[in-house]
Specification:
This protein is α/β, with parallel strands linked by helices. It contains 14 helices and 19 strands. Strands 14-13-12-15-16-18-17-19 form an 8-stranded mixed sheet, sandwiched between helices. Strands 5-7-8-9-10-11 form a 6-stranded antiparallel sheet, with helices on one face. The chain has a 5-stranded mixed sheet with strand order 1-2-4-3-6, with helices on one face. α7 links the parallel β12 and β13. α9 crosses α11. The radius of gyration is 25 Å and the shape is globular.
Length: 474
């Protein structure tokens, strides 16, 4: 590496390299357990040059987490940088990672260094950090680089499988033991994509097959999916949106007709299973990658049949083509280039022969070089939203999981929905990341204190009532 490589900040530059551990004098050397240490230097993509006073920070990769995609891929490290928008350059230091697939390998959170020893370790790394600083930094005697800390609630984890899908690329399924507030612990099964390793795509509750905790260990224990509850933070709030059309759903049941839901984006299938098992919906799931569906069926308890049906394809394209068969969708013929394509649609989109009471959209942006956001901008195009509206019954709703990268993006989503739908409601998930927007085809008179019908009572019995009470008109 040339001398002066790190003197200049260059937007989006990423450099990762190793150094022999014995070439560096480090206090608390037991933190490192590999022959080499891995160093990654990331310059923010959002840098506005020139920068007079750049902010630099370092981070120690958690011990034994070096093989996690969060820490050993450029995209994972980039997402870490996005978590600190004020930082111009982030320097990660950790044990060197290997290229093994690590399936079946147990991770256990190491005992945390006491604050004094951790500070001693960080100070011993300053000579190394000095070489990695831009020339704009005043390297005075009292200068120090602040160390950020990565913290999550994972106590233990083990990877069950890794596979590659044609559309989403490499993915993994892992069981994790997590710490919950109040010192309790729970077990979860997660699906993650390598293209967005910091984002949990799907998460379900799992229960040990053996109830006596003294007779099993996490690595070898067998687990069963628990499909009667939703643990992914925004899924229960999405389901809460059904409260807005509880009267309509109740009328469907009373007339002997099963309400229909469509889930755009299946992942592990937790939402589909919940709607079918707990609320009695007929559900159609649309997923772009067939391998994801296989994973959902193998590891996440998703069962297809009379209650759940699946369709492989691009959800946005399928919505637009499904709208071809709605006589009220005026421009429908323009969506199919010729009669042959229409005939193909009739065969492929038989699942859309009837309209839906709810369409739930859980699609994130496929641009992994940008900060995580949802839904993709393509879904917000007017012709797509009109197509979604045409696939709904008169009292149907469109429910979206929204991850806004900023307020401007959130306002854009709201504006796009208002142009097409009559009413719009929102729900703040409360995790600082997700919002749920509920767009209705026709105007809704919503009163959370109105008398309950059977469906509303059922809804409140399977999700927290606080989500229903949190729904607000936009």
């Amino acid at each position: 590496m040339e001398e002066g490589t790190f003197d200049t900040l260059i937007p989006s530059r990423y450099i990762s390299f190793t150094l022999p551990l014995n070439s560096i004098i480090i206090s608390q050397n037991h933190y490192f357990h590999t022959e080499n240490i891995q160093i990654s230097v990331l310059d923010s993509p959002s840098l506005q040059l020139p920068i007079n006073s750049p902010k630099i920070a370092a981070m120690l990769v958690p011990k034994f987490r070096e093989n996690d995609w969060i820490f050993n891929t450029e995209l994972g490290q980039l997402q870490l940088l996005f978590s600190f928008p004020e930082i111009s350059r982030l320097i990660l230091i950790g044990n060197a990672y290997d290229n093994d697939n690590n399936v079946g390998k147990l991770y256990k959170r190491s005992v945390e260094l006491n604050p004094f020893r951790r500070e001693e370790l960080e100070r011993s790394l300053y000579p190394l950090l000095t070489v990695l600083l831009p020339k704009e930094i005043d390297k005075a005697d009292d200068f120090c680089v602040p160390f950020l800390r990565y913290e999550d609630n994972v106590i233990s984890s083990v990877i069950l499988d890794k596979c590659i899908g044609d559309s989403v690329g490499e993915m993994l399924v892992e069981d994790v033991e997590i710490e919950i507030e109040g010192c309790s612990r729970e077990f979860r099964r997660r699906l993650r994509f390598k293209r967005m390793p910091n984002l949990v795509q799907s998460e379900i509750s799992i229960v040990p097959k053996v109830t006596d905790e003294k007779s099993w260990d996490f690595e070898k224990a067998g687990f069963c999916p628990n499909l009667e509850m939703l643990v992914h933070p925004y899924l229960a709030p999405m389901v809460a949106g059904l409260a807005l059309v509880a009267v309509h759903i109740q009328e469907r049941f009373e007339s002997g007709v099963q309400p229909r839901g469509c889930c755009m984006g299946v992942g592990g299938g937790a939402l589909l299973s919940f709607l079918s098992i707990n609320l009695g919906f007929e559900v159609v799931g649309v997923e772009v990658d067939e391998v994801v569906l296989s994973v959902a069926e193998k590891y996440f308890g998703l069962e297809t049949g009379q209650g759940i049906q699946l369709c492989v394809g691009d959800g946005i394209k399928i919505l637009k083509k499904a709208a071809c068969y709605d006589e009220n969708y005026k421009s429908s013929r323009n969506l199919a280039s010729n009669i042959r394509e229409l005939d193909c649609c009739r065969t492929k989109f038989e699942l859309f022969r009837s309209k839906f009471d709810v369409i739930m959209v859980d699609l994130d942006s496929s641009d992994s070089k940008m900060d995580i956001s949802a839904p993709p901008l393509e879904f917000l195009q007017k012709d797509v939203l009109l197509a979604a509206k045409s696939c709904l019954f008169e009292h149907g709703i469109l429910v979206l999981n929204v991850i806004p990268r900023n307020q401007t993006f959130y306002n854009l989503v709201i504006h796009a929905l208002r142009e097409v739908f009559d009413d719009l409601h929102e729900l703040d998930v409360g995790n600082g990341e997700n919002f749920v927007l509920i767009a209705s085809k026709t105007s809704i008179e919503w009163n959370s204190g109105a008398p309950e019908n059977v469906f509303m009572s059922k809804l409140k019995s399977v999700i927290s009532e606080m989500y229903i009470d949190a729904i607000r008109k936009v």
